[in-house]
Specification:
Layout lengths: L2 E2 L9 H7 L21 H23 L20 E4 L8 E5 L1 H12 L7 E5 L2 E5 L2 E2 L4 E5 L3 E5 L8 E2 L15 E2 L3 E4 L2 E7 L3 E3 L3 H8 L11 E4 L2 E6 L2 E3 L6 E4 L2 E6 L2 E3 L17 E12 L4 E3 L4 H7 L3 E13 L3 E6 L6 E21 L7 E22 L17 E22 L6 E13 L7 E4 L1 E6 L11 E3 L5 E3 L14
Parallel strand pairs: 1-2, 2-4, 3-5, 4-7, 5-8, 6-11, 7-12, 8-13, 11-14, 12-15, 13-16, 14-17, 15-18, 16-19, 18-20, 19-20, 20-22, 21-23, 22-24, 23-24, 24-25, 25-26, 26-27, 26-28, 27-29, 29-30
Antiparallel strand pairs: 9-10, 30-31
């Protein structure tokens, strides 16, 4: 039972529901000794045990979304523990009138929780109300819980936002050289952090930031709404994030991160660079069951920018993205890159509905990036009214400075697309490799996309090597080998280097 220090604090009963539904629960395994009986059939029993544990691990992999091939693609996670103590923000002087600045109240609350780490940490309940605040930091072993009707409002005066050094894997601020603004809710070198609630809201009030950015009135890169750096064991769930000044949720060089049941919103136009979720040099991450409609990429997996990302050398890997509905009128539903210089690998993107978007799924890179994008699986995607469905672009030439190596060519290989369906798509596929950056080992299987354009080149390829298995629609480009459903070769590609890229459609 949680010790609640105030009668107004929210009860902890929500944990029983949310943790019971968590897909990473560990199952109890009976002791092997309990299976043994004192008989002469020891060998038979041992064989039965071996079979039992083999099936158990296969089933556990299937439940967690992992591959059933002798290894777990996405490791299971231990669940956060109940906090022994809960506080209410009003205990620290918080006033939820939308006018009073609550930064000091948040800071005092976090300080109190920071002293409880050895006892299991603490929970900060944010009750219904509008809680205006400048940026503040989280601490380890902390739960930030937003009640229904609770809104944390970011102050829209940039003078309250602290300046921070550029990210080490970027070298520069993403929009300006030099320092960058910090995030509204921030954390570094943390462990065991939970941000959750009864669908409370964190609102960055980004309108003034967007306007100043368009008018070129800002001298530093805008800050994210929520940024967690160099941390592990993070859970963010059951809240709404909206109107971020810049990228909305930015986990940076983190491990063991679960993001689920989020609603992320920003205007689809005139809200520049308001990406939804940007995993950046992260490892062992699950993003699931979210709705995202924003002014840039709904999700963009990153790992550093040109020579700075190569030197930092932290890939994004072991990432599972599933069960999302996303929209991006000016960019893409799910992107990888363009900042991917530390490498991106072992990513599964499945059960995604992309609607009224410029692009559906995209990989973007350029000469000078270095790094790699490999072992990427797209499965069960639905395109609903998008301009271009599948995009791989190798000339996305944005660079932090002139110090990058123009001969640092990224490697793109091992990319598969299975069960791709949709309607009202202008160009279903545009894969634009180059002589320096060919796209290798691409696979298409089970694809049927209704198109809005009757021109010939609507499945576009350049410098692509790979295969099509079975019948797909529209007809694939000539760069790809054709196989029947049984895996028998039907036709070799006529030229993997030929190009029919047509940007007029």
């Amino acid at each position: 039972m949680v010790e609640t220090l105030t009668p107004t604090s929210s009860p902890p009963c929500f944990w029983r529901r949310s943790w019971a539904n968590h897909h990473h629960q560990r199952r109890w395994i009976p002791s092997a000794a309990s299976f043994f009986v004192t008989t002469h059939k020891t060998l038979l029993t041992a064989l039965c045990l071996a079979f039992f544990f083999t099936v158990f691990y296969w089933q556990r992999d299937a439940a967690s979304g992992g591959f059933l091939i002798f290894r777990r693609a996405f490791p299971l996670r231990q669940l956060p523990k109940l906090r022994p103590v809960a506080f209410n923000l009003t205990e620290f002087g918080g006033v939820g009138d939308g006018v009073t600045l609550n930064t000091a109240a948040f800071e005092r609350a976090v300080m109190a929780i920071s002293k409880l780490g050895k006892k299991g940490g603490g929970q900060l309940n944010v009750p219904p109300g509008n809680w205006l605040t400048a940026p503040f930091n989280l601490t380890s072993h902390m739960t930030l819980f937003l009640a229904e009707g609770a809104v944390i409002l970011g102050i829209d005066d940039e003078n309250y936002w602290p300046l921070m050094p550029p990210l080490p894997s970027y070298g520069y601020g993403r929009e300006h050289p030099g320092p960058r603004y910090g995030s509204l809710i921030h954390g570094q070198h943390l462990k065991d952090v939970v941000i959750t609630g009864h669908n409370g809201t964190i609102n960055g009030q980004g309108q003034s930031w967007w306007k100043k950015y368009r008018q070129k009135l800002l001298n530093h890169t805008r800050g994210p709404l929520v940024q967690i750096m160099w941390s592990s064991d993070i859970l963010i769930s059951n809240i709404t994030l909206r109107d971020s000044p810049f990228w909305t949720l930015h986990p940076y060089d983190c491990k063991n991160v679960t993001i689920k049941n989020l609603t992320i919103l920003a205007p689809v136009f005139q809200a520049p660079n308001t990406d939804g979720i940007d995993p950046d040099s992260c490892e062992d991450m699950v993003i699931e069951d979210c709705y995202i409609s924003v002014g840039d990429d709904a999700i963009a997996i990153k790992s550093g920018w040109d020579q700075y990302g190569v030197a930092y050398g932290r890939p994004s890997k072991n990432i599972l993205i599933r069960n999302l509905v996303v929209r991006s009128n000016v960019s893409a539903g799910i992107s990888i890159g363009s900042e991917m210089s530390g490498g991106v690998s072992n990513v599964t993107i499945e059960n995604i509905h992309i609607w009224k978007s410029r692009r559906a799924v995209r990989i973007k890179t350029a000469p000078g990036r270095g790094g790699y994008v490999r072992d990427i699986t797209y499965r069960n995607l639905t395109f609903d009214t998008v301009r271009v469905g599948i995009v791989i672009k190798t000339d996305y030439n944005e660079h932090p400075d002139g110090g990058y190596d123009p001969n640092a060519f990224p490697v793109l290989e091992g990319i598969s697309y299975t069960s791709i369906h949709g309607e009202s798509v202008r160009v279903p596929v545009r894969i634009q490799g180059s002589a320096e950056i060919p796209v290798k080992n691409v696979t298409f299987r089970d694809m049927s996309v209704g198109i809005t354009n009757k021109k010939k080149h609507i499945f576009q390829c350049a410098y692509v090597e790979g295969r099509v298995i079975g019948t797909i629609f529209p007809a694939p480009c000539d760069n790809l080998d054709l196989y029947d459903e049984a895996g028998n070769l039907v036709r070799r590609s006529s030229s993997q280097n030929s190009s029919d890229i047509d940007y007029d459609i």
